[in-house]
Amino acid sequence: MSLSGDTTLAKIIVVTSGKGGVGKTTSSAAIGTGIALKGHKTVIIDFDVGLRNLDLIMGCERRVVYDFVNVINKEATLSQALIKDKRTKDLFILPASQTRDKDALTIEGVQGVLEELAKDFEYIICDSPAGIEKGAQMALYFADAAIVVTNPEVSSVRDSDRILGILQSKSKRAEDGKEPIEEHLLLTRYHPGRVALGEMLSVSDVEDILAIPLLGVIPESEAVLKASNQGTPVILDTDSEAGLAYMDAVDRLMGEERPLRFLEVQKKGFIKRLLGG
Amino acid sequence: MGIFDYFKSKSAPSSASVAKDRLQIIVAHERSKRHQPDYLPQMQQEIIDVIRKYVNIGNEDVQIQLDNTDDCSILELNVTLPEQN
């Protein structure tokens, strides 16, 4: 990690995008859960102060007592604010404050919390708010790696490129002249049928434009909404393509080789095609 | 896709390829500006104001670009003057 002095093994991963609504929180929840499932002690921090939602996606909204800002302001200890996930061992959530705004986050405050977490956790996932303003910059400042969540759509790709510029210039690693943040592209809401029809940017189109290594492609899937309705990270839905694609992405993040899948159009029956179903 | 779609002409470029072309241009443009110093837009405006004291030009007639190579930075200033009558 790129915090001050002491060397710990904790890896800080920011999940970011610039654009809103592309699946940052869904991806943070899925990937954090996936890493914990592999036996690594993991915490997911919601940096979206004022608009907290990670708690809902993780299904722990009724267990929030203290939050990230309370810990920064020393109104609560870290162990009081951390919520232990009920389904997955080794997984904790640090919720965002709902009553403050992004100004409640300070570099020193965030650094203090991350340093304390790094003593105890192997992976720290920072779920960034949308935008390129203070909240997003705080979420990425201390990161060792970044997962850039992108939809195959013009405004999302452009915003992802903006956020890559910020990762390369305004992070602590950049300011200290250290090895740059590891960048990973996660393409979400991918619709192979529309790509085949030339109606949607393909994986290779987006890779050509952003020029960063591909971590995974998550197909558009009904399972994502179903999972968020129920407050269960979609990665636990092992019957769904989206869940399996997230698990593949986690495996790749851990350095394993996994071929891409779910990128082909599913063949429809002749009658269904004829009727336009 | 229903049966009638099969009769549609496929000659126009796909919207995805249009999207890719547009993105490649705008992203390249924005990347080239990324490493420019913050004072550049203001300096550009002041240069335009000075030139305008003498020649009637529009904002788009002045292009300013800063290129960094390994050992030096080159400030390129391109002014399109109006045709003389």
UniProtKB/TrEMBL annotation, chain A:
<comment type="subunit">
    <text>Interacts with MinC and FtsZ.</text>
</comment>
<feature type="domain" description="AAA">
    <location>
        <begin position="10"/>
        <end position="164"/>
    </location>
</feature>
<dbReference type="GO" id="GO:0016887">
    <property type="term" value="F:ATP hydrolysis activity"/>
</dbReference>
<dbReference type="InterPro" id="IPR050625">
    <property type="entry name" value="ParA/MinD_ATPase"/>
</dbReference>
<dbReference type="GO" id="GO:0005524">
    <property type="term" value="F:ATP binding"/>
</dbReference>
<keyword id="KW-0717">Septation</keyword>
<feature type="binding site">
    <location>
        <begin position="19"/>
        <end position="26"/>
    </location>
    <ligand>
        <name>ATP</name>
    </ligand>
</feature>
<dbReference type="InterPro" id="IPR025501">
    <property type="entry name" value="MinD_FleN"/>
</dbReference>
<protein>
    <recommendedName>
        <fullName>Septum site-determining protein MinD</fullName>
    </recommendedName>
</protein>
<keyword id="KW-0547">Nucleotide-binding</keyword>
<keyword id="KW-0132">Cell division</keyword>
<dbReference type="InterPro" id="IPR010223">
    <property type="entry name" value="MinD"/>
</dbReference>
<comment type="function">
    <text>ATPase required for the correct placement of the division site. Cell division inhibitors MinC and MinD act in concert to form an inhibitor capable of blocking formation of the polar Z ring septums. Rapidly oscillates between the poles of the cell to destabilize FtsZ filaments that have formed before they mature into polar Z rings.</text>
</comment>
<keyword id="KW-0131">Cell cycle</keyword>
<dbReference type="GO" id="GO:0051782">
    <property type="term" value="P:negative regulation of cell division"/>
</dbReference>
<dbReference type="InterPro" id="IPR025669">
    <property type="entry name" value="AAA_dom"/>
</dbReference>
<dbReference type="GO" id="GO:0009898">
    <property type="term" value="C:cytoplasmic side of plasma membrane"/>
</dbReference>
<dbReference type="GO" id="GO:0000917">
    <property type="term" value="P:division septum assembly"/>
</dbReference>
<dbReference type="GO" id="GO:0005829">
    <property type="term" value="C:cytosol"/>
</dbReference>
<comment type="similarity">
    <text>Belongs to the ParA family. MinD subfamily.</text>
</comment>
<dbReference type="Pfam" id="PF13614">
    <property type="entry name" value="AAA_31"/>
</dbReference>
<keyword id="KW-0067">ATP-binding</keyword>
<dbReference type="InterPro" id="IPR027417">
    <property type="entry name" value="P-loop_NTPase"/>
</dbReference>
